[in-house]
Amino acid sequence: MEKVKSLKDCAFTGVLVLVLITLFIPSLKVVNASPLSQGLIYNVRDYGAKGDSVTLDTKSIQAAIDDCSKQGGGTVLLPAGTYLSGTLHLKSYITLHIQSGAVLLGSTRIDDYTLNSPELVSYNDSFLKQSLIYGENLDHISIEGDGIIDGQGGAFKVTTKVKPDRYKNRPFILRLIHCRNVRVENITLQNSAMWMQHYLACENLIIRGIKVYNHCNQNNDMMDIDGCKNVVISDCIGDTDDDGLTLKSTSGQITENVTITNCILSSHCNALKCGTESHGGFKNIVISNILVKPSKDDTAIFGDPKGIGGIVLAIVDGGLLDNVNISNVRIEGTRVPLFLRLGNRARTVVPGDIPPGVGTYENVKISHVTATGADSIGCSITGLPGHPVRNVELSDITISFRGGVVDPQRLANVPENETFYPESTMFGTLPAYGFYLRHAVNISLSDIDLSCKQPDERPALLADDVKELDIDNLKAMGSENAEPLISLINTSNVYLTDSRASNSANGFVSISGEYTGPVFMYNNKMSNTRIPIMINDNVPGDVIKCLDSY
């Protein structure tokens, strides 16, 4: 009994102490603002920050960050106000909380930004050295709140077209390098002088509920995930002049284990993009539930007001692309909805290094995509001679193109452009209004619906040097005057089933090239075509197998 009484006395004493603390030390607060920060709040105004948009508050905000770090971490709070600042260096176990009504405003003086040269070498290090918020080799950091970070990037004018000088002295808003357990949530980011946010070789990265508007300078990307591992991006809204949600690999490290979902993207360039820099490459990428819509800004600094590309997957600097799954995407108005490219620009991480070999490109699934207002260029899946794109599945794809191209023969000789920058406009107008396939192995297209707003004399689909091509349930507008619905050139082991022209057409399929065949056809509707099958003289006579169509 005495022991029980003692426990009761202890409990009473504990409650009394908590009551006294609450009554007499009201300024002591424990923060539960985020799962990454459970400690004290450090209000930047207590460190002298004015928040008047005129006074440079860099030292005051940094002092709060440093003090928070010395105490083992917590939350650095920016309450309502406009805080002008140069470079801020984050520390581990810190949450930067920008409250509703607060703006972190980037200085327009380049001298207010420190020069940072990270330990990890990447392609951009020689010319992209400044940022408003910087962190390297940190753990458990977060940026959150309903406030705004504004870089005032329009003040940093581009004065030359010469590379790399045209990239210099234009700060990022946010650059984190080799950081772990990173969370960026709910914040609004706008007006960067360069890319908005760059995450290089970070691990366990969560970006959720942010809003980005970036239309004040060249290279105004939404976000760049670069050589990162274990990444979750969700519920974000972005409107940018340059690329939108962008996966890169500038250091040789692979960007892998990435999920992206429930985002609304607008871009004058490419809305969803893997590539441009691909030194390490991309592996295990899952993207779903994306709306790509026109930008509310109808003046383009760098790209096209309509947007250039919807979904772009490109390997051009060595590296690999493996196991990418994209589903449930709606694309409105973008010129080229789908662009898949294996090239050989062979740019090195460090100038003077040995160029990488041609990369590898395989195992891509894209499904449930609807695109309207596409240009007349056409979509493409292209590799290089001897280096094919492999194992690509497209299913449940509906695209409406502008069309209107006549005399398709003038488009027949498509250049390889092996070393070109990977842009969906790089070949010009393609010889197919829907899909142009070249140098590929094991390509599957099922439940594809293609149409044009204006009559177009090109085929809906053209395959050149493709092995193992499966086309099932293709419905497409054909031409009454010229090319058949499908053109096969030097393409082998083709399975063409349950497909048809959606209108009266001159032909259903043409077969040419001495290496074409066999072509297995079953249950295709060809009765509304004038010449269902066109076979050139150089094709073996028994190229058609199992013909059971009507």
What does this structure look like?
There is one protein chain. By secondary structure, the chain is mostly beta strands. The protein has 2 helices and 38 strands. It has a 38-stranded parallel beta sheet that branches. The longest helix has 23 residues, at 2-24. The relative contact order is 0.06.
Briefly, what is this?
The protein has 550 residues and is mainly beta.
User: Which geometry do the CA atoms define?
Assistant: elongated
Strand content: over 45%
Structural class: mainly beta
Helix content: under 10%
Give the distance, in angstroms, between the N- and C-terminal Cα atoms. 95 Å
Report the C-alpha radius of gyration, rounded: 28 Å
Determine the number of helices (DSSP H or I, runs of at least 4 residues): 2
List keywords for this structure.
550 residues; mainly beta; disordered N terminus
Q: Topology of this structure?
A:
Elements: H1 2-24, E1 40-43, E2 52-56, H2 58-70, E3 74-78, E4 81-85, E5 88-89, E6 94-98, E7 102-106, E8 131-136, E9 139-144, E10 148-150, E11 172-177, E12 180-185, E13 188-190, E14 197-200, E15 203-208, E16 211-214, E17 223-226, E18 229-234, E19 237-240, E20 245-249, E21 255-267, E22 270-278, E23 281-292, E24 309-315, E25 320-332, E26 336-342, E27 360-374, E28 379-382, E29 389-403, E30 435-454, E31 461-476, E32 486-489, E33 492-497, E34 500-501, E35 505-512, E36 519-522, E37 529-535, E38 544-548
